[in-house]
Amino acid sequence: MDLRGKKILVTGGAGFLGQHVVRKLVGRGVPQENISVPRSKEIDLRKKENCAAAVRGQDVVIHLAGTTGGIAFHKEHPAQTFYDNLMMGVELIEAARVSGVTKFVTIGSATEYPEHAPLPFKEENLWLGPSEEIHVPYAIAKKMLLVEAQAYRKQYGFNGIHLLMANMYGPGDYKSSFVLPTLVKRIRAAEEEKCGYIEVWGTGKATRDFLYVEDAAEGIVLATEKYDSSEPVNIASGEEVSIRKAVTTLARLMDFKGEIRWDKAMPDGQLRRMLDASRAEKEFGFRASTDFDTGIKKTLQSHL
């Protein structure tokens, strides 16, 4: 699909990931005026009539908007997380079908994978078991959008694709409660307050697949251009990094000399998480190009 002449709706386009996706689209030659970015304060996409209005006249929808956060957020807001993500996605997909949208891109999450899926996580193992308990409301809401897209393809010929994203980080992630920006804030606060330590949840043994946001945006745009299958596909670095390594890397690059205290009474979350990105490379040529150390340096330089 040549995106240059398309009208493209990017929900969440003003957010952390969305800003990078919009820049990638513009870099591909899509005129800025062809990209619609609805603001959550102005339009509630949980409501059917608002979704219908948002997709009217659009050729492509890239659905990035969502209600999510780290372990603490999902633990404290399970109902909101489930309802918001399910309703936004379900109503947008239906509105897009009715409106004749050519392609719908749904952004899913690595948390959709079973808690004890074999590593690296492969798309064919998505339904082997339940997700980690804390993330179940979010993960199930996202999985239902995959089910909806596949059902709509079978019955209506609707071209919906589902991308499973690894843990993203990078410039512009100022407000989220995800692990890396949270750690940066804690280190900076400790330095400002002249505190000799920071506290980090868990043991540090848990691992994650950290994906630099510019790589994530490139994967999304490539999939929008070139991927038309009903099967979900991972967008990931394929690199397994422990939380302990992430913390020590941040401390080193931020020249933090204080103590790192591990609060073992708090949850680690899923013990290991790394995604197999080979399907994305095979199907549409995506391969993450930013290693963890380089991505962290770029992130810190942007004054996260």
- Examine the coordinates and then state which fold CATH places here, giving the name of the CATH topology of the domain at 3-170 and 211-237 and 275-289: Rossmann fold
> Overall 3D geometry?
globular
- Compute the number of strand runs: 12
Structural class: alpha/beta
What gap, in angstroms, lies between the N and C termini?
34 Å
Q: Please write the string of helix (H) and strand (E) elements.
A: EHEHEHHEHEEHEEEHEEHEHH
Q: How would you characterize the largest beta sheet?
A: 6 strands, parallel
Q: Overall pLDDT, averaged?
A: 94
Binned, the helix content reads: 40-55%
Instruction: Work out the helix count.
Output: 10
Report strand order across the widest sheet. Answer: 2-1-3-4-5-10
Computed Rg: 19 Å
CATH superfamily of the domain at 3-170 and 211-237 and 275-289: NAD(P)-binding Rossmann-like Domain
Parts with pLDDT < 50 across at least 5 consecutive residues: none
What is the highest CATH level, the class of the domain at 3-170 and 211-237 and 275-289?
Answer: Alpha Beta
CATH architecture of the domain at 3-170 and 211-237 and 275-289: 3-Layer(aba) Sandwich
